[in-house]
């Protein structure tokens, strides 16, 4: 019976990724339920989807869906309000705000964990970890006014790395609970104009936690009931994520684990190996995964695996932990968010090790259908039905990592279901940190993004787009990411990717230099070929969207493209978004001056007034605004239109016409030449 039900849909309609389709078929044949089965049975609540349901007090839930315009002769219905009188605007704004809170809290709490580890490392109390990127440490020290030297005159000497790190760690940790003042990165790193704008609007964040707490308070029953005012605090909270927690975690992870440089890797379920012990590292915080990586390479561990009949240990990443491991060590990626159940369904995963965020609770049930051990490692994220919980402790991380790898190895002989690993994987080149892009495009000596700007001004590169964010089972898996990205490339827009979007691009072969000729317009193709980079640059995990902010700022500072991020010919998108984190990210991009378009659905459409404020009103205040477009190609076109609008404002629209004309001429000349 269960099997019959699970065959209700055609797997080919659920994903454009052949490995995913193959595994959904396997799941159906085995009668194992996946997210698509559940999505088929449960449709989203239309009122909740629009943000028009308030359940923040027990007099509700109150539903205030938009009212249709009356037909002629009919009486116009009145827009409902909540029992307390809350309008649709207030209800929708409050729900949106709480999504920003959820997302910012996830990033800022992740960041706190990294900062605490950093402190332990600085004090020599976290064996196995060390400070890897001294240059970045010093950069951070300068940001936080931690002196690099001590003494005066002839007595002046450099302070030790440890001492600098210890002082820096304390200063960073203070920012989480800080009550007044300004977050260091937010007040120092963006273009001057942006900093002034935020100060004038009163949205400069004071600390990482306080903005979230205040916003939760203000959206409690009967507090802030003016939607502009609610949104203002959303802006402050989102900035505390992008230019606060997320940026802190990105930078400290680089200090501890190394700043990514270009590295090649592989992606998709085909990276799993039938004759190896397969361990999937799934989640977001690279802290323990870094040690699992070390443990999996130790000769004793490899020997232990061989004793159990395996050829070795294969680590593979999933979700953002995958991005972190891939960027720094070239560890292959098994897949993005919607592939987590499917990895287990291959029958080849001996352990799935999860930390925090984007882990489906259904993993426990799927794991039970196979031999897979589901190991939770973070006390904040337990899953009912987990096989075991092995909590991370930074003081004994390497021993814990070894224990986890052994658990997986011990499980290798227990494989029972027929193993089927799709023979599908793709090579990738990843690791385009903001620093790497600077190096590749500007050279370390000039240390500038000017070459990129020069290409934008000259018209070979039309603009820059960030395509980021999740998968969503309501949208065919990966399809919107790919359609949008290809449309942008075709129009000479270079694409920066993170998170699950980056993985979608990788699975399509877009993260290779060869993709340039295949997918790009002539201008972008030429630039990519000259520099030897892919046209889609993988910048990391979702907290690494902060790298995009830094790259945008570097473009502004390099000159020639205006004086603020909102002047840049740039746009952002999350065509398959689903998480609260995506809303927080979207809003910090908007708050930083970026036109940001989401796909699928938008959680504020229950109030036309509030949505109009987000989509249009904000442009005047922040220079950036939201948008919703269900068709990914149309969405790309809207991004390009925005880019062109910015080019025109900068007075560089003519240059592009010239370039295109030149290229046309050159092609004609070449064509003429070959005829001779
Ligand atoms: Ni971002 Fe990365 Fe993926 Fe979405 Fe989840 S894994 S943090 S939230 S689903 S992109
Ligand atoms: Fe209803 Fe107001 Fe309570 Fe919300 S706060 S559930 S609108 S009574």
From TrEMBL:
Report keywords, A-Z.
Answer: 4Fe-4S, Iron, Iron-sulfur, Metal-binding, Nickel, Oxidoreductase
Q: What is this enzyme's EC? A: 1.2.7.4
| Catalytic activity, as annotated | CO + 2 oxidized [2Fe-2S]-[ferredoxin] + H2O = 2 reduced [2Fe-2S]-[ferredoxin] + CO2 + 2 H(+)
Pfam families linked to this entry: Prismane
- Record keywords: Transit peptide included? no
Q: Which GO BP annotation is one of this protein's?
A: response to hydrogen peroxide
Cofactor(s) needed by this chain: [4Fe-4S] cluster
Write out the residues that bind [4Fe-4S] cluster 2.
Answer: 54, 57, 62, 84
Q: Which residues bind [Ni-4Fe-4S] cluster?
A: 284, 320, 358, 470, 500, 542
Enzyme's top EC category: oxidoreductase
Q: Which residues form the signal peptide?
A: none
Q: Give the matching InterPro entries.
A: CO_DH_a-bundle (IPR016101), CODH (IPR010047), HCP/CODH (IPR004137), Prismane-like_a/b-sand (IPR016099), Prismane-like_sf (IPR011254)
Where, by residue number, does [4Fe-4S] cluster 1 bind?
45, 53
GO MF annotation: an example: peroxidase activity
Q: What is this protein called?
A: Carbon monoxide dehydrogenase
